[in-house]
Each structure stands twice: as C-alpha cells, then as structure tokens.
C-alpha cells in the first residue's frame, strides 16, 4: 500500500509484528508530516531477509527497527474522567494524558461529569477546552452530557464538537449531574436522533439498587445486582428502537446484559456496548477486606461472570474495551465499601492488563487492537485514529508483548497513586508512543479534537 513516490517519509518504522487492519505480520510503516503515507509488508525469510527495505538509500530523517517488538496503532480510550476544571486535585489533563501516553493510548475522550462546570452546554465545553489547552500529551475529544432540563442545549453542544452525550439512569454520585427518568431518556433520545447524534448510557435501574447493608465487598456487590444492569439495558434498547437513536451502553459488568444486547442488535436497534479492563481481569473473589481501590459502579463481579464477558467480546456483543478511568484523592477511598468513592484508575495499565488475560485465553494482538483502538475510534467518529492505515494519523505504539512487569502504583503518571493493579504482574510493556509521528515526551503536543 502506498501513497506515491512523491511522499518521501520523514519517519520509517519496521516491525515483524505490525498489527494492521488485515492482521498481524511484518511491515514497514512510512510517515510524513504526521500522517501515514505508506504501509509495506516486508519479507523476513532467509532469501530477502530484512534488507528488503523500500526506503533503502533514501535520506530519511528517522528510522526505527523494532525487530520482534510489536507495532500497534495508538489506542483510543473513549471513557476517561479527567475531572478538570473543578476537581483537578482528583485528576487533570496534564497527568491523565501523560498516563495515557505511557500506556499506549494516543486519544482519549473526556467524560462530561466530575468537572465543574459539567459539560452540559456549549459554554461549559468552552471552559473545559480552555482548561485543557496546552496541557495535553495526547489528543483529547469530549463527550457532552444529557441531564434533566438541558434538552435545548444538546444540538448546540453537538455543533460545538462533542462526540456524543452521556446520561445516567441512576444517581451519578455528583449532584450537578442528575439522572434521567424514562420520560427524560425518551426526550433526550428523540432530540439526539434528530441530528443523528450518539447517546451513551450508564445503565443501572435505580429501582433495583440499594444501600449496602454493611462495609464489606459482599454487601456492596449485593447492593448493585446484575439484574439492575440488565433491566436498564432492556429499557434503553426498547426506547432506542422506538426513537431510532444510536445508543451505546457503557461499562457492562454483568453478563446478564449479553442476551438483551444481542437480541436488540438482531432486531435492528442501533445499539452497541463496551466493557472495561477491570471487569475482564479482576474478580469479586479476590477483593481483599477493606480494599476499596477495587470499588467501582457497576461492580467487579464473579470469576464465572468474567468468563461470560470474554465470551461476549469474542462473539462481538461487546465491541469496545475502555478504561472508565475515574480517579479520586486517596482520602476518599476509605476502607468501607459503603462509604468509599467508586472509581478505578487504570488508564496507564489497561493495555497490559487486557493483553495478559487475552493472551492466556488464546486471543491475539489484533483482537486487543480491535477492542481498544479500532472500535472505540469508530464509536466516537474519530477518523484517522485507531488503525495503521494510509492517510491516518501516525499515532503508533511500540509494544513488547512478551515482557513481564509488576505494577507499582507510585510509578504511574495519574495524579493520585491508587489502583487495584498495584503489585500485580502483567504481560507486555509499552516501549515508545508516537503522536502524529513524533515520540511523546515532556512537551505537551496533544490536539483538542
């Protein structure tokens, strides 16, 4: 594949394990002015060896030969709570995007809540963009919010560039971002469908949620049953079918959701769904007493449930794996599951966590790239992202898929060193991350999309 001989590259990267849309294999990727201008398969056999370089003899500013280190497209994480402005002491654009780059993520989409003001109108989006400007190590896009009373703001937010609209069906945990009831959900869907936008939904039925009966993890898990997720997914599917809106279910933790999701798609409903690294790699059985770094909503469930989520990924019912990176300050993670803040910080370790478990289950790097790069980019309409393809942004990752490392929370880049992955041995390490053909370093060169 080539863009023509006049496109002399300024960067050439070679790898025996390049993950392309066609699959994993040896390739040479040529970059000029931040975009991929050519992708050449290369022969690693004894006859031609690695000397079959289409750019041999050309004056190329930078050449990188990764050998057996894999070359991936930069990951796209469409579920990140940056929290700035307003709660920057929880997380901010500078720290979140550095963590993203270190984890092989080159584009994030920021959630509309937990910042002050929340992104529920065009003025609030402008405030957030000003807060992010000049701080970002990777590219950043934004979700808007759909809350009671802001239906009239949604079209203007869409025209201002948000990738879609998040809503909650149950309390969000912050009073400035209240949930939608059924009538409000229908109204939001009708408005968003009128301009062919996207609605993304935190789907738990509040009627089936309860306050935990004690401070332990078992009581917390029992207070947010999988049936609450299933019931909410069924409601979203029904209303999406009636209104024609494009809808997406966030952070599926319960395998009970798989059947109604698959049924809705068979019936022609424009519905998709995601899950998260913690639901695919952690289990309720392993949560230590008082270890509220494992608390999130919806919760981490049983090992058997985890196995079913992997089946949902393999079957395509779940299309995306994204972090739901939702940090807080350590003082909010009190050793009481009923009282602690719910949120997991995994932006930097998501790739290695998922690859560790995926490889164990027989999946390849091409599967992981589809779930964590290509499909999230498509969901958010991020053209030129999520694939190593001619014309796309040269967002690339050198990933040593066979390396092993132990997670040290203190060495992670997000603002507060709290993560359930601390001390966990994972497979794979990010060696280098390139954003539009330039290695990510200390200078923040991310673009606000």
UniProtKB/TrEMBL annotation:
Cofactor: Zn(2+)
Pathway assigned to this chain's UniProt record: Nitrogen metabolism; (S)-allantoin degradation; allantoate from (S)-allantoin: step 1/1
Matches recorded under InterPro entries: Allantoinase, Amidohydro-rel, DHOase/Allantoinase_Hydrolase, Metal-dep_hydrolase_composite, Metal_Hydrolase
Keywords of the record: Hydrolase, Metal-binding, Zinc
Gene3D superfamilies referenced in this protein's UniProt entry, alphabetically: Metal-dependent hydrolases
Residue span(s) of domain Amidohydrolase-related: 71-440
Pfam families given in the database record: Amidohydro_1
EC number: 3.5.2.5
Family per record: Belongs to the metallo-dependent hydrolases superfamily. Allantoinase family.
PANTHER family (alphabetical): ALLANTOINASE
Quaternary structure annotation from Swiss-Prot or TrEMBL: Homotetramer.
Protein name listed in UniProt: allantoinase
Species this protein is from: Streptosporangium longisporum
Gene: allB
